[in-house]
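Example 3.2
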Amino acid sequence: MPKELEPVLKDLPGPTQQKILKAFKSVSIHQSFSGPIPPPNILKGYNDVVKDGAERIMSMAERQSNHRITLEDHAIREELRQSGRGQIFGFVLGIVGLGLATYLAIYGHEVIAGVFGTTTIVGLVAVFVIGKKAQKQEEE
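Structure, written as tokens:
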């Protein structure tokens, strides 16, 4: 019997005490926890139910943690690789656009060359400025 119940039960008649104790014992106490590993007192109980239950739970938590670390590492590497490719493609497109504008200007199409050159530069600057703003917003 929990010590907290003793002062309450001592003034009650015997049959009432027995009913309360019986009801108290039949009520299951619910415990909850967050995270992959239960608290030690619950972990010990798993050993009573399943052979090496606590060890199996700890092993499962370690495997899950390693899996999550591997996935995050892979995602970061892919993101960096994709960012690098985007910069290379952007550079190539910028050079091609400015080269085309230069070619058009040399062969007498100054207006079209100006449009091509301007839109190429403005487009690249816009992409980098918008990309930096989006990156700053993600960091905040």
